[in-house]
Design a protein that fits this description.
This protein is an alpha+beta fold. It has five helices and eight strands. It has one domain. It starts with a strand and ends with a helix.
């Protein structure tokens, strides 16, 4: 069992014995609703296309649920949650927030969710629900922007 403290967010990752790559995620996805799985698969493909992406299934200690977590250079990019709806938890540090508000190409509803980010300690977190393919398409540019901030 491995536990690690991240600079952005408390998290814990459990790994039991050697496993094939992707086995943990495949097992996790068997418990996900089909529509959520479809949106997640598209989101995951977009995220894994970005350089330096790390993917894992972890307990989100702020919410207490198991979920996929994506990082860049050890920093949180996004956490993906599966409740009644698929939703994302995105850290909003000052530098990232400023870039979001300056970017005229982002969807206005996405920008509004960033403005409404919840303060959970050192960093704010925005919650973005994914209920449709259109909402997924609106959030991907935000995640690309966050990736560029983390790698910049």
């Amino acid at each position: 069992m491995e536990a690690r403290q991240d600079s952005n967010r408390p998290w814990t990752r459990f790994q039991i014995g050697p496993r094939e790559p992707g086995t943990e995620l495949q097992e996790f996805l068997t418990r996900v609703k089909p529509k959520q799985r479809k949106y997640f698969t598209e989101l995951r493909s977009a995220l894994l296309a970005l350089p330096e992406i790390e993917e894992s299934i972890e307990i989100d200690e702020l919410r207490g649920d198991w979920c996929p977590a994506y990082r860049v250079r050890g920093l949180d990019l996004v956490w993906v949650h599966f409740d009644e709806q698929l939703w994302l938890s995105v850290p909003v540090e000052a530098k990232f927030g400023k870039k979001v508000f300056q970017d005229e190409n982002l969807d206005s509803q996405v920008v509004e969710r960033i403005k409404d980010a919840e303060d959970l300690g050192e960093v704010k977190y925005a919650s973005l629900q994914i209920r449709s393919a259109e909402q997924l398409d609106q959030v991907i540019p935000l995640l690309r922007l966050r990736h560029s901030v983390l790698t910049g």
